[in-house]
Amino acid sequence: MHKMLYFDYSAVILEFVLLASILMRRMTNGKINSMFIMLVTVSIFTTSADIIAVTYDNLGRGFYYEKMMAHSVYLFLRALISFIHLNYVIVLTDTWFKAANNFAKKIKLFFPIFLLVAFLTANVFAHNIFYIDQNGTYVRGDNFLWLYAINGYYAVYGAVKIFKNSQMMDMSRIISLFVGTFLMMGAALIQFVIPNVLIDMFACSIGLLFIFVMVQRPEEITDSETGLIKLNTYAYDLKRSFINQKPETLIMIRLNNYLVIREMLGYMDTIIVKRMIADMIVRYLRSSKIRADVYYIGSGNYRVRLENHDKEEVAKAAEYINEALKEGIRYNEMQINLVACVCITNIPEDIDDFDSLCIFGNDFSAEYTGNVLYASEICRKSRYDIMREIDKIIENAISENEFEVYYQPIYSIKEQRFNSAEALLRLKTEKYGYISPELFIPAAEKSGAIHRIGEIVMESVCSFIGSEEYAGLGLDYIEVNLSPAQCMENNLAENMIGIMQKNHVQPSQLNLEITETASGEIQNVVMDNITTLYDAGISLSLDDFGTGYSNMTRIASLPFHIIKLDKTFTQIEDNPNLIIVLENVIKMIKALNMKIVVEGIETKELVDHFARMECEYIQGYYYSKPLPKRDFVKFVKSSI
Ligand code: C2E
Ligand code: MG
Ligand code: MG
């Protein structure tokens, strides 16, 4: 009977188009892609073998050996597709490392395909899989079902694997993989029932197309600007490693001056610079024959995930990348300096979950030294545990009253007494001990908990000021910090004034510290709050003056009573230029009729130094660290 080849012709065209589109779009990064390319390539060979075999069949009698050969090759390749499909699922779930050192698993994987080769070889003599009868017709033998058993085995193996690892994939990927698998395997069953409809390879190619579009998702994998792998795939790959408990070695690269470069070069030219860096990394890895996945995850962040965990090789690669980045980039007659931080991170020794990895990825560059960093040396795991749970910790601290306000005295040199104090919030938890405000305040700002925290601090400070023990201390006022997010709260001023009135606190007994960041973003609501508080008679300080956001005109335009010089101004030793800046800053503030408080004073020399520069108020460990209320009361009393 004449067999129709139209389906096979369509299949081979589809497979070629698929292969060309993968190769032409240069999506050859990574093991998953390589395995998929192999799957498509073997499918092309399989379909071709089928076409050849059927063409011979259609010629009628004769061509015995050619027919035997072509059918054997086709049947072998068809089973190979199932085998490679299973391997594709294995690399997709990144579980190969589990089989790598496990003999039983290797047998489970390879034995059936060896068995198939043995069957097909034996078939040349035994004719029990298929044979060519005297009419030259291809006829299935008694053991033909074995081939289906082997194909089915691999299909079921793959399906179980997808199912077992379903937690690391989103639903649409899982469904697509199942559908793809079903198309690739299900059509074989149809062909089994109706042998003359050669639909198998056509369905197989549609299955591949489906997997290509829905599982490979080329647009999601490759970052079109750098040609590297994108953030969501990075997240997917690493989450999967954490789930599989698979050790990983990462070289993390972060351009500290990315924003400056973007500002300087503009959007389009920054893309070219990003690409040049990507090419440099990829070129080095290729030339050193290092197998790795390279990702660009945005904002000047690159990640290299190495397959080989050999410490020396990893260190050498990181060293090379670090040095190459230090040289900067020549582009358009410009020499662009790159301030890049390179860090080697081992998973899970250094970091054992994805969220912590992201937090670490955002702030390891603060440790910049110019040399390659090691996460094992700079990453304090507990910090990342805290960051991961911080919202829960804060909520818990609010409901369990774990926040406590400490007070740090401020000394007036002129009056020779402690005239005020700054209220500083402390959080002590059972699990982690003390957690720094530098960690929980920004987190509370993000989550919105800062508003409730602000009220807790205000209540606590106001009830202290209203108490009898406070009356005996002779302090003029207490300073309370207001974070940028608090300043944007609609009814901040009303709330604050309400709490003060409830506790019978006079406006002059309070002073609110605003950081420069907050005063930098002067939005209407911030301005309204500041004006209402000011009109109510509460004085304001500008906190941390001298850090990143200094804006001279702003000092003049807002009604500050006090400017608090930041700790950085205390590093004047051996820095004559800083002294000149400092002297002029002090002169300027005084000319504006504002008071100066110097923060972070730890030594007698510094007290004397600032006293000579006529800075009247001093705050710092030299006098006292922030103290719990009871100790603070004792401390100030003993100084009177
Ligand atoms: P800040 O307002 O600039 O507070 C001064 C910080 O310097 C405090 O850190 C204080 O403990 C520390 N400090 C004081 N003297 C010295 C010294 O001599 N040497 C050194 N090295 N440090 C000194 P702390 O308590 O860790 O607070 C950090 C920041 O957290 C504060 O900076 C403030 O911005 C924020 N913060 C603290 N409590 C609150 C609060 O109740 N509300 C808000 N919104 N922010 C708060
Ligand atoms: Mg402060
Ligand atoms: Mg400060």
Protein model, in words:
The chain is of the alpha/beta class and 640 residues long. The chain has 3 domains: 6-219, Up-down Bundle (Rhopdopsin 7-helix transmembrane proteins), CATH 1.20.1070; 223-387, Reverse transcriptase/Diguanylate cyclase domain (Alpha-Beta Plaits, 2-Layer Sandwich); 390-636, EAL domain (TIM Barrel, Alpha-Beta Barrel). The protein contains 26 helices and 19 strands. An 8-stranded mixed beta barrel has the order 10-11-13-14-15-16-17-18, surrounded by 5 helices. It has a 5-stranded mixed sheet with strand order 4-5-3-8-9, with helices on both faces. Bound molecules: ligand C2E and magnesium ion (2 copies). Ligand C2E binds next to strand 11, helix 16, strand 13 and strand 15. One magnesium ion (MG) binds next to strand 15.
Primary descriptors:
elongated, alpha/beta, 8-stranded mixed β-barrel, single chain, Alpha-Beta Plaits, binds ligand C2E, 57% helix, Rhopdopsin 7-helix transmembrane proteins, 640 residues, 5-stranded mixed sheet, binds magnesium ion, 15% strand, TIM Barrel, 19 strands, 3 domains
Give a summary of the structure in a few sentences.
The protein has 640 residues and is an alpha/beta fold. It folds into three domains: 6-219, Rhopdopsin 7-helix transmembrane proteins (Up-down Bundle), CATH 1.20.1070; 223-387, Alpha-Beta Plaits, CATH 3.30.70; 390-636, TIM Barrel (Alpha-Beta Barrel), CATH 3.20.20.450.
